[in-house]
């Protein structure tokens, strides 16, 4: 155990730049050799990387036009109000991601020397699988580094991050320059190629030799050996479908307006093609999960999860938690014994169309401002608690007006809403937070949803080929958005006339796709990054609505104070102090 602690600590020290603390201790060298005979210890390096994967629900929505929080000291709130600096960065992933990459590089340099199993076939399969996992995870962390820290450098070049593909020791050069953005994208693709070559699309046990994927058939001579390594038991580990998903995410990022540059070879066609590979695997447009719209609250489906299985909507998820009510404790309104952290804005509420599919600003929508929640997109009621909503185990009526006489009213107490709204998405309404009868339920956090990939395709296909173009595929951006809106119950009585208008205009379709992405992925930590890669306005004032009886009073809740250069995040100031070859992104000090 002492040797394990020493080497794991040494990895962290290397990444933090403390070279003088990393001495060539014979004990440390011995601990690397221990990997070769202790397969569990060797696998621990992968486990540490898994533990460092950024959270899907990171609540960065607080820093957007979709939400605010009643936590006055929240880092995203402070960031949005003007305190975002290279030294104070809530979205900094530099140290944690490079720390994980160090684990992975050390693992990859030693994986072939590990005795994974006594059985020769199983040992080779374990080697392939874990090698594939390591390459895939390295691509994952490089993607997040690129998303959070790439940008136009102070020298005018579009820069990524330092590419590190070998384990750094005390004798290594730590003063590495940033690679250009395109080089980083290609490195991600290269690692994903290696991951896909070594991994099955999904981990499923087989019943016959003919079901074993071709790349493993020459190694796995029996069903039992294949299932031992690549079967159901390995579910929720990195697989080739996850690799394809990160390829699609990376391509979408690279094609986006914020990264359009002569040195960047990424295209919208690439992004559409990569997303289409996953959609085709899912079964095309018809593969869209009918209940994916409420993935977080499909109670019977969630309660039945076992053996690492996924709901139809989910590509990858975290492990399930049972008897849990953490999200509800944080985000229920006070009357349901929650602390109401996530407060959706009127900006977001206004983005939900009417049931007939028209935006509420359109004359054909029939929107009535004296009945603002009537006849709206059903997703509004699925995702947001508004004045008059009935929620929780007792269908408690939630009154959000400042004069409502309840703790749920605007700014009544520290746990009350600031906007007149509470988040409902992510929460199960059958969780009871009453201290006299507290009960939790089964939950899981996603890592990748199929709906995201469908939306990625729609965005990229519209830019590449227009609303109705299909490239080499069987469906268009229009087809995807039509399916998503139909699933939501939009435009079912009028043929979705607004969508029919948009299909003739690439710009209008772009606005619609962006809005559908905003709605479908709200509170899932996408909006913060989408606004930046689209180069859209970051400074919309967060608004609310004070509803008292039949009086509706719009309120300004929170001003934003972002600068133009904040489309890109900074390189950590601490790293710039240590390494002179690092170039900061333009505008950051």
Descriptive report:
The radius of gyration is 25 Å and the shape is globular. The longest helix has 30 residues, at 120-149. The strands form seven sheets. A two-stranded antiparallel sheet has the order 1-6. Strands 2-3 form a two-stranded antiparallel ribbon. A two-stranded antiparallel sheet has the order 4-12. The protein has a domain at 2-54 and 93-261. Helix 16 (450-465) packs antiparallel against helix 19 (506-520). It has 21 helices and 14 strands. The chain starts with a helix and ends in an 11-residue tail after the last helix. It has helices at residues 2-15, 26-37, 39-51, 75-83, 94-110, 120-149, 181-198, 214-217, 223-230, 240-255, 268-282, 299-303, 326-331, 346-351, 378-383, 450-465, 477-488, 497-502, 506-520, 527-534, 573-578, and strands at 67-69, 151-152, 158-159, 314-317, 321-324, 342-344, 384-385, 390-391, 396-397, 422-423, 441-443, 446-449, 542-548, 551-558. 45% of the residues are buried. The chain has 589 residues and is mainly α.
Overview features:
589 residues, two-stranded antiparallel ribbon, 14 strands, globular, mainly alpha, 41% helix
Total number of beta strands:
14
**Rg (C-alpha, Å):** 25 Å
Task: For the record, give the distance between the C-alpha atoms at the N and C termini, rounded to a whole number.
Answer: 43 Å
In percent, how helical is the residue content? 40-55%
Write down the oligomeric state. single chain
Stretches where pLDDT falls below 50 for ≥5 residues?
1-30
Biggest sheet character: 2 strands, antiparallel
What structural class do the secondary elements suggest?
mainly alpha
> Strand order across the biggest sheet?
1-6
């Amino acid at each position: 155990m002492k040797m394990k602690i020493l080497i794991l600590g040494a990895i962290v020290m290397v990444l933090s730049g403390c070279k003088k603390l990393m001495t060539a201790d014979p004990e440390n060298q011995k601990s690397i050799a221990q990997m070769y005979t202790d397969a569990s210890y060797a696998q621990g390096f992968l486990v540490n990387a898994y533990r460092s994967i950024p959270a899907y629900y990171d609540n960065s929505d607080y820093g957007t036009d979709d939400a605010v929080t009643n936590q006055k000291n929240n880092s995203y709130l402070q960031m949005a109000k003007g305190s975002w600096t290279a030294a104070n960065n809530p979205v900094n992933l530099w140290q944690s991601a490079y720390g994980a990459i160090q684990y992975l590089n050390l693992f990859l340099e030693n994986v072939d020397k590990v005795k994974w199993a006594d059985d020769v076939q199983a040992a080779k399969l374990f080697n392939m699988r874990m090698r594939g996992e390591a390459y895939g995870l390295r691509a994952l962390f490089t993607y997040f580094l690129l998303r959070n820290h790439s940008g136009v450098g102070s020298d005018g070049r579009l820069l990524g991050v330092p590419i590190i593909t070998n384990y750094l020791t005390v004798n290594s050069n730590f003063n590495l320059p940033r690679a250009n953005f395109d080089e980083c994208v290609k490195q991600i693709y290269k690692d994903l190629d290696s991951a896909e070559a070594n991994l099955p699309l999904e981990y499923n046990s087989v019943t016959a030799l003919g079901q074993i994927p071709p790349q493993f058939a020459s190694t796995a001579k029996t069903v039992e050996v294949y299932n031992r390594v690549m079967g159901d038991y390995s579910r929720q580990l990195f697989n080739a479908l996850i690799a394809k998903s990160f390829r699609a995410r990376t391509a979408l990022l690279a094609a986006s307006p914020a990264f359009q540059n002569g040195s960047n070879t990424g295209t919208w066609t690439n992004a559409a093609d990569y997303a289409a590979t996953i959609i085709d695997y899912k079964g095309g447009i018809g593969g869209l999960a009918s209940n994916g719209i409420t993935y977080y609250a499909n109670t019977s489906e969630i309660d039945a999860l076992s053996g690492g299985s996924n709901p139809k909507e989910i590509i990858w998820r975290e492990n399930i938690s049972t008897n849990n009510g953490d999200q509800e404790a944080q985000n229920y309104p006070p009357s349901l014994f929650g602390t109401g952290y996530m407060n959706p804005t009127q900006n977001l509420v206004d983005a939900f169309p009417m049931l007939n599919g028209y935006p509420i600003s359109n004359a054909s929508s029939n929107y009535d401002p004296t009945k603002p929640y009537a006849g709206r997109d059903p997703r509004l009621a699925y995702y947001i608690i508004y004045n008059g909503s009935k929620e929780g185990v007792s269908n408690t009526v939630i009154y959000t007006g400042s004069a409502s006489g309840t703790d749920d009213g605007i700014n009544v107490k520290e746990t009350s809403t600031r906007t007149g709204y509470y988040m409902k998405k992510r929460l199960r309404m059958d969780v009871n937070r009453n201290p006299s009868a507290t009960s939790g339920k089964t939950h899981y956090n996603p890592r990748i949803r199929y709906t995201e990939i469908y939306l990625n395709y729609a965005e990229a296909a519209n830019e590449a080929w227009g609303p109705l173009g299909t490239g080499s595929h069987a469906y268009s951006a229009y087809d995807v958005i039509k399916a998503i809106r139909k699933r939501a119950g939009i435009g079912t009585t009028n043929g979705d006339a607004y969508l029919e208008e948009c299909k003739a205009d690439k710009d209008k379709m772009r606005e619609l796709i962006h809005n559908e992405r905003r709605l479908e992925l709200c509170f899932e930590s996408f909006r913060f990054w989408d606004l930046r890669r689209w180069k859209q306005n970051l400074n919309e004032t967060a608004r609310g609505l004070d509803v008292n009886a039949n009086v509706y009073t719009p309120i300004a809740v929170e001003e934003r104070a972002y600068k133009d250069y904040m489309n890109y995040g900074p390189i950590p100031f601490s790293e710039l102090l240590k390494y002179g070859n690092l170039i900061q992104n333009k505008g950051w000090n």
